[in-house]
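Risk register update: the risk of archive-format incompatibility is retired. Evidence:
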Amino acid sequence: MEENASCNDERSNAVEERLEKLERQVLQLPELICVAMGGQARRRSTEVESTLKTMHQRMDALEKRIGGIPAALALAIKTPVAKSPSPPSPLLDEFHQLSSALNVFSNAVYASHLPTHSHAASTIPASTPSTWTSYTCFTWSDGSMRRAPETWRFPSTTCSVLWQLWFHGDPAAGICPFRLLTGSDVPPCAQTNWTCAKGIMDVLVKAAGASVAAIAAMPPPASMSLFDAAFEKWWTRELASLDVEGIEDAKSIMYPALHALSSASVAETPSLLPPAKRRCLPRSSHED
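Archived output:
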């Protein structure tokens, strides 16, 4: 019995010692945690300071390089300019000669198609072959290439000028013969005039009795003579009842008005005529 009691006491003492040890370790945990976190924070602080220092050094170096760009750029430009030009190569001379020959040829071709009729002298700006060698393609805001600018206004003019534009284009604006334009080439703001122009030109070409290709191949004087005959024929047949004073006065009426007149009765559309062009019309036709 005494031996059993002694063994139990030893075991009890051992358990108490282990419990006291665990208790001491638990009491030390907050201190150990603080020490560990403090060391980790110091290490991180050191790493952050090192990173910031490196960034400042790189930024300082970058500022120095940027500050030296103007001087370096000026030197880079000045040095090639100061050098004497190199002698021209034979290949470059041949290229310039070929380019000049092509320009002369294209100028001669386009010069034969430039409008010269007196009806267009005050309306279409004069253009010399040297300033007009090709038609232009215009880039619209959607990236597409068209034959007319996106903000272009289809001109509202007389039939004689429209005839020249239809077959010879507008050299000053770099626009091809208007007959080659499609609906996608014409901006929305110009669609109405374009539609009227097509209607008038279809009528005039039909009255001329010649194909579009044949008229386009004519020299401008012959083309305008054909226009005069076609316009007079169409006017006499369709619109002579307007009793405008003379065929020349009729030719001075803008084509949108003539298109509207040819599409409706005279009594419905007299207001489209300028006051000076109205004569012998019923009184009611002058009233709004």
